[in-house]
Here is the input.
Amino acid sequence: MSQALKIQLSRQGVSMSALIHPKTVTVDGLSVRYAEGGQDGPDVILMSPWPESVYAFEPAWPYLAAAAHLVAIDPPGFGGSDYRQALMNPKAMGHFILNVADALGLDNPHIVGPDIGTSSVLFAAAADPGRFRSIVVGSGGAAVPLDVAGVLKEWIEAPDLEPYRQIGGRKIVEIALGTIAGYTPSDEIREDYMSCYEGDRFADTIPYAQSYREYLPELANLLPGIQTPVRIVAGADDQVVPGSNAEFLHERLPNARVDLIAGAGHFCWEEKPAEYAALLTSWWAGPSGVEKLNQPTREQGA
Here is the structure.
């Protein structure tokens, strides 16, 4: 199969997984890739992490699908969805998430936004109070001042994106995937990840993370007004997004709790899928248990 054909099949949503079968919907003139699954339970939106795609949820999918109707979405510019420069910040992306939910008829879903979805989902919740039944975020930059490390810090502080264009998105994503502990995506899913960020595509998404410096202070001011129950889930050993980001959110959100997954790094949804899924499904089953909220951070599986 030629590289061009692989990219075309990936962008068109040709399935590479027995569990996840992507398709597309047009929202605000953009083709948005998404995948549905699960049962007739509550609606749940899963926002894919960077630099992956809807397939990032494959290891956890069987656990999650047993508890809910799942709608996994590639945000615009990420995964297999069309790019729009104006959406390369979490505030604009948060408003777009609401538009996607409208387009898919998801009136009051739970929503899960790991990684880059942390800030955009919280912006969406602030913009439309009560829209989401519950929220799960984590593994994404949130603290003010910004506290990230490793390659994410390098990307955010990069004065010039041309070096990343020269390296090319495939190579950058390949390196990033090599940091996932204890999990190797199938060749087809790995190809999807790399194809989705081919050429300049990865470099074109870096401004999203760079915008944290402007938009996270604004989000910080909004956090106390978000009444929706929020569970903050991250790997206890995340070397890219330190636990200070989870604690920053926990201290400011009025109905929140933090759970750190022992033995998991940044990609906790793939490294510890059963533990990750258990935290999500228990949250969906009873997210309004206020007596459990705003308690000290708990490490799961220690």
About this structure: Residues 3-300 form a domain with the Rossmann fold fold (CATH 3.40.50.1820).
